[in-house]
Amino acid sequence: MQTATEPLIELDGVTKVFYTDEIETHALSGIHLSIQKGEYISIAGPSGCGKTTLLSILGLLDSPTDGVYSLNGRPVSGLTASERARIRNREIGFIFQAFNLIGDLTVYENVELPLTYRGMPSAERKQRVEAALERVGMAHRIRHYPSQLSGGQQQPVAVARAIAGDPLILLADEPTGNLDSKNGEAVMELLRELHQGGATICMVTHDPRYARHADRTIHLFDGQVVRDEAAGAVVEELEEAGFEIGVDGEKRVPHGG
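The structure corresponding to this sequence follows.
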């Protein structure tokens, strides 16, 4: 679904350094990356390689130490704090590994909260929340609290909260990390459907089974992009590891049982 227009996301020499006392930690080193509107990107690599730092910068939760990040053709360094907050609320949807649902709010209220911050009329909020929960199959849990849900039920609610505002970009940080394989595949199917509907998705994952859902996989190591490969290369790696991949991209059976 990549277009020939200007990239939606463009990073040019982005570096991130964390300073603690006299220690410098270089989380990202000279990242160059372009993502078109409608692309589905997975970001892979070992723990500590900079995946979450990169996602935080893309989501305007953090800023580069050096380099240029342009969003929709505009360098984000020129944005005020209020403009950054408005973009996060209106144009970026976040899906976290830890769900980040508010315990004393119902499922409905959790999904509604970001829309309330927009000042959206009550009737429109209600329509969007119910539509989002219906889409993820959680409309029947609308009055429940997070503590009354399993992890496999909380994550779809987190997805509903992210998509209710119809964001331009979905950022998912290990969205299946706290789920078993069945619920993990269900969440990946939701992301696949959102992508088919036109969403731009950037997903951090350490699992090549889930990376194969993306159009491209960006491999990070020690804060640098070491590989940028199309989805077919990920499937080849899985097959070499002993899995048979069907024509629809689904994992069939490991060789030898």
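The two ends are 36 Å apart (CA to CA).
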